[in-house]
Specification:
The protein has 2 helices and 4 strands. It is α+β, with helices and mostly antiparallel strands. It starts with a strand and ends in a 35-residue tail after the last helix.
Length: 106
């Protein structure tokens, strides 16, 4: 069989350790998922050549998402090169919600 290419978004799910409420939690467990990403991982597990195409931010969380897909055998590049168009990932100084007032209870 040929190559399988999935297009979509990958999501980061944060789960509080001990199933506490978000406001009570001091730490979180990270899980990457999404329908298209799950299909690509399943196909790779069945021995198929699978690719996942998406747009990710160029920082540690984007790189962690790519690493998680690659860990399961999913290819994240097409035609060679970096998925970000660069040879390396440049970390940003911090990651935050870009909406005005985000995180301040508004």
């Amino acid at each position: 069989m040929g190559k399988f290419i999935t297009f979509g978004e990958i999501m980061l799910r944060l789960t509080s350790v001990g199933h506490e409420r978000y406001l009570q939690a001091k730490s979180f467990s990270a899980c990457y998922a999404g329908s298209e990403a799950n299909v690509a991982v399943s196909l790779a597990a069945l021995g198929r050549e699978s690719y996942f195409v998406t747009k990710l931010p160029v920082h540690e969380i984007g790189q962690a998402a790519l690493n998680e897909l690659r860990r399961f055998g999913v290819r994240t590049e097409l035609g060679g090169g970096s998925p970000h168009g660069r040879g390396r990932i440049r970390p940003g100084p911090e990651m935050r919600d870009r909406r005005p007032g985000a995180g301040r209870g508004s």
